[in-house]
Specification:
mainly alpha, 9 helices, 73% helix
Length: 222
């Protein structure tokens, strides 16, 4: 009897331990995973609603931008120049992966646009803070395209010549050098051109005879 009771107690302890362990696993792993799934689902839904609302007002933001872009340009350029290189690259070419990777920098850039009352920047900035930059990539891209249109065009560096290809400066220098050589070959030496003139200048004619040196003429006979 005692042995049977001990066995029953051991079995009960095992069952209780198993239930407790399963409960712990349920609370620590299963429930959080469900919460993440449902939480992300709600987040995506809310972000989609924010994007839809922005799209409905996009034309209005575009008109406002056209009206204010002259007074906004200098301020936008100042904000852009003060931004780090990754944000500058995103403004010119926004990508969803880039927005996600540089989320904090994107949010800061949008906040600066809100300060200068850039059209559409406030709802986009709030959505980026609430849901994350990647969830509202469309509206952010719209704002960045408008910003990019106000930036001065960057001068592209001159393309390097292909191997073996000469530049225009090199060709010009070579032509000048060849012209000098041709002139030197066709121009006679200075001494040869000056000799006849020198000889002509040094040749003198004899002076005319003087009256006293002329022979006396005899008077004519009658």
């Amino acid at each position: 009897m005692n042995k049977n009771r001990e066995r029953e107690r051991d079995q009960l302890r095992k069952e209780l331990y198993t239930d407790t362990e399963m409960g712990s696993i349920w609370k620590s792993k299963v429930l959080p995973s469900f919460a993440n799934v449902f939480g992300n689902s709600k987040k995506k839904t809310a972000a989609a609603e924010a994007v839809k609302s922005f799209d409905e007002s996009k034309e209005e933001y575009g008109r406002e931008f056209e009206e204010k872009k002259t007074e906004l340009q200098a301020k936008v350029v100042e904000i852009y120049e003060a931004s780090p290189a990754p944000i500058k690259a995103l403004v010119k070419k926004p990508t969803e992966s880039g927005l996600k990777k540089n989320s904090s920098g994107v949010k800061k850039f949008l906040e600066e646009l809100v300060k200068i009352e850039f059209p559409g920047s406030k709802p986009v900035s709030e959505a980026a803070v609430t849901f994350g930059s990647a969830y509202v990539a469309g509206p952010i891209t719209f704002i960045f395209e408008e910003v990019s249109s106000l930036l001065p065009a960057e001068e592209e560096p001159p393309a390097a010549p292909a191997p073996g290809e000469r530049t225009s400066k090199e060709v010009t220098a070579e032509v000048i050098e060849e012209t000098k050589k041709e002139e030197e070959e066709t121009t006679p030496p200075a001494s040869a051109t000056e000799t006849p003139a020198l000889a002509e200048s040094t040749t003198t004619e004899p002076p005319p005879p003087r009256a006293e040196d002329a022979p006396a003429t005899e008077p004519a006979k009658a």
